[in-house]
Design brief:
The chain is mostly helical. The protein has four helices and four strands. The chain has one domain: Large-conductance mechanosensitive channel, MscL, domain 1 (Non-ribosomal Peptide Synthetase Peptidyl Carrier Protein, Chain A), CATH 1.10.1200.120. A hairpin with a 5-residue loop joins β2 and β3.
Length: 133
């Protein structure tokens, strides 16, 4: 029973729950960004290349087409898909940065620390000086 209580205490810590919520929201937001870049950004950039942006590739070795038109044995570098994923990452990272910045600005500033009084040595030195007079 003690281990179950210990796990419950661990799982209900504020930071762990916050991280879990942030992870789920980030995963959902990533899908939104992926559809944005795949459906809006990639076609617009694809206009520059006269091709679908995700289909851009550098063919290293040509494949052989069969009777149905399927290409087999092709070796290619799929740089269009990589660039799309980099754009996805940059958008997600920027938005997460803006969210963290907004949350940090909403936090209450820490109360100012009271000025430190004289140390014990300073007080003793002051008493000594007063006694000398």
């Amino acid at each position: 029973m003690g281990m179950l209580k210990e796990f419950k205490d661990f799982a209900m810590k504020g930071n762990l729950v916050d991280i879990a919520v942030g992870f789920v929201m980030g995963a959902a937001f990533n899908k939104v960004v992926s559809s944005f870049t795949g459906g809006i950004v990639s076609p617009l950039i694809g206009l520059l290349f006269n091709a679908d942006f995700k289909d851009l590739k550098y063919v290293i070795k040509e494949g052989v087409a069969d009777a149905e038109g399927n290409v087999a044995g092709e070796v290619a570098v799929l740089y269009g898909e990589f660039i799309t994923n980099v754009i996805d990452f940059l958008i997600v990272a920027f938005v997460m940065f803006m969210i963290v910045k907004a949350v940090n600005s909403m936090k209450k500033p820490a109360p100012p620390t009271p000025p430190a009084g004289p140390t014990q040595e300073e007080l003793l030195a002051e008493i000594r000086d007063l006694l000398k007079k």
